[in-house]
Amino acid sequence: MIRYGIIGTSWITETFIGGAMGVAGMELAGVYSRSAEKGRSFADKFTAAAHGKTVPVWTGLTTMAASDAIDAVYIASPNKLHYEQSKLFLEHGKHVICEKPIAIHPEQLKELTALAQEKGVIYMEAIMMMHQPQLAALKEAVAKLGRIYTAHIDFSQLSSKYPAFLAGQNPNIFNPAFCTGALMDLGIYCVYLALELFGRPERVRIDSQFLSSGADATGDVLLAYPGCHVSISYSKVGQNRLGSQIIGDEGTLTIDSISQLTGMNLHHKDGSVTPVWGDEAKNTLMGAEARDFYRYITEPDATRAEYAICQERALQVCELLETLRHEAGIRFIE
Ligand SMILES: NC(=O)c1ccc[n+]([C@@H]2O[C@H](COP(=O)([O-])OP(=O)(O)OC[C@H]3O[C@@H](n4cnc5c(N)ncnc54)[C@H](OP(=O)(O)O)[C@@H]3O)[C@@H](O)[C@H]2O)c1
């Protein structure tokens, strides 16, 4: 049994727990919250339904990391905290699955990857697309597109926190003190897919629009490859209604959701359409990463190569995001 604790008590943690409930062998065993009351009500809500046990609630991270009650942790705190929290738990020999972006700087990621290796534990980014069967289906469809000259990857999603920002509040997602903003929140998915399908680009260009807080609200990126251009757009202040497209001379793959890899259709050049993947509930989607986390922990030999690919891709993404931030002038208060 892998007993995991959680950091962060927002909807994304609830969704992850919902996904992990489908993984036999994973059990929610403790909750961290800055508020004991919030932590208790969160813990009871999920453990009562799952196994009826009362699990510990911590308001101190060091006590949690040192506790024998957990073997692993899922981290879903604001981006800025990912590095220091992951480090604390890795130092205590806990397996870590951390929300995207797993780290802000590649040096941080390299340091913690080495630390995880030294401690003999798993350290991975919670990025849904790398763990879903849809990724293989997408790649199979891409192989049928012929020569690909162009791809347009878009993840523009109007933030539920934008009205609060407009009303003069300072939500974490638009606060550069938390290393957030559109590129780190949504652009990261587009970068993941581009690297997964096309590898490292030869050249990059980027332009961003900024909010008064200093956070980037939108971004447009051009990744240049020999014979192919990938354009990426993302926004937290407007909604994409057209999806993404990978365009080849034999056909076009349309993708409704780039983060979930759902709503995918292969349009052949004769106009016919082959469905590639439909819709999925989000907790099912997050269940795939929870299952892989569990497999990497419990079947290290069988999953070594797979885990290494995830680590390598996470580092490539982290490096490219840093390059893009530099080019766009996206600055955090660190
Ligand atoms: N995979 C996905 O689809 C997905 C979707 C959304 C978000 N995410 C990722 O999940 C992470 C959390 O995102 P979110 O939107 O849930 O963030 P958030 O609401 O700003 O914060 C998440 C949790 O962190 C704690 N927290 C909030 N402000 C804090 C502060 N100032 N200092 C310390 N702790 C604080 C809160 O828990 P307590 O009050 O209980 O301490 C809160 O529930 C981000 O890294 C984001 O990129 C992933």
Description:
The protein is an alpha/beta fold. It folds into 2 domains: 125 residues, NAD(P)-binding Rossmann-like Domain (Rossmann fold, 3-Layer(aba) Sandwich); 167 residues, 2-Layer Sandwich (Dihydrodipicolinate Reductase, domain 2), CATH 3.30.360. The protein has an 8-stranded mixed β-sheet. The radius of gyration is 20 Å and the shape is globular. The structure holds NADP nicotinamide-adenine-dinucleotide phosphate.
Quick overview:
The protein is an alpha/beta fold and about 325 residues long. The protein has 10 helices and 14 strands. The strands form 2 sheets. Strands 8-9-10-7-11-12-13-14 form an 8-stranded mixed beta sheet. The chain has a 6-stranded parallel beta sheet with strand order 3-2-1-4-5-6, with helices on both faces.
Give the arrangement of secondary structure elements.
Blueprint: E1 2-7, H1 11-20, E2 26-32, H2 36-50, E3 57-58, H3 61-66, E4 72-75, H4 82-91, E5 95-99, H5 106-119, E6 123-126, H6 133-142, E7 148-156, H7 162-166, H8 182-198, E8 203-210, E9 216-225, E10 228-235, E11 244-248, E12 251-257, E13 262-268, E14 273-277, H9 282-298, H10 300-328
Parallel strand pairs: 1-2, 1-4, 2-3, 4-5, 5-6, 7-10
Antiparallel strand pairs: 7-11, 8-9, 9-10, 11-12, 12-13, 13-14
Helix pairs in contact: 1-9, 4-5, 5-10, 8-10, 9-10
This protein binds NADP nicotinamide-adenine-dinucleotide phosphate.
Residues 8-10, 12, 33-35, 38, 76-79, 81, 99-100, 126, 172, 185 line the site of NADP nicotinamide-adenine-dinucleotide phosphate (NAP).
